[in-house]
Amino acid sequence: MSLPTVVTLKEMGPRDGLQNEARAISRADKVRLVDDLSRAGLSHIEVGSFVSPRWVPQMAGSQAVFADIERRSGTVYAALTPNLKGFEQALQAGADEVAIFAAASETFSQRNINCSISESMQRFEPVMSAAASAGIRVRGYVSCVLGCPYEGEIPASQVAIVARELHAMGCYETVLSDTIGTGTPGATRNLFAVVARDIPREHLAGHFHDTYGQALANIYASLLEGIRVFDSAVAGLGGCPYARGATGNVASEDVLYMLQGLGIHTGIDLELLIQAGNRISAVLNRPTGSRVARARQADH
Length: 300
Prior knowledge:
Helices cover 43% and strands 15% of the residues. It has a single domain, classed as TIM Barrel (Alpha-Beta Barrel). It is built from 12 helices and 8 strands.
């Protein structure tokens, strides 16, 4: 299969990137990050999540962030919503789109959202119904598709069952997430080949963490499988509070640099993206997790 000419990067930095930070981040800094990303040309930004602040304190105040961002035409501002209450809050905040999340691992599902995979699907039904009534699109995540911190390797057939259910519920896009970053290119190609038997490739996306340094290779493998949508986080922000040792999402700057080298169009300005990553890294008082950004700093 030939490489696509256009790819969409969906930015996870403000939500998946910041949710695991130990120190408090001001609303102004969160708003500035979203605005910086908009200006860089990101067409889809996950701004925050409407979950219990008891479980994810860093995402408290997502409604205020949505209220303060400078919305740009053509950019989708999305939110993660675990249940109907979260969906209603996201709708009130003016989210353009929402996402729900399931796991391919029973143990991870219990540790992450305190219910079985089957029970999680039941929770999503009222969200899907309310979203349909409101005309809001829903994206569905499947966690631990290439490995689980509790169960180890997850069969692609098991991932396909969960992905198929989300697709059947009405998720316009199903995101296969390598939550702990243990996947390799061969396993990635096999995973998409198996899941694509039931779900058209244009309705699939990839979400890779870089724990083992395989994220870019896995994205390239996904491109060879005809996947054209990928999640990433500026400055390589992120991790997973329920997956010990999982490092950040693949850095948006690094993915963009690779795609540009392949002649693939994204509509994103690399220099502005690097600036956005450097600015939030300064707020967090640590170096950027993007190798491209670090290389550019060394050059200068």
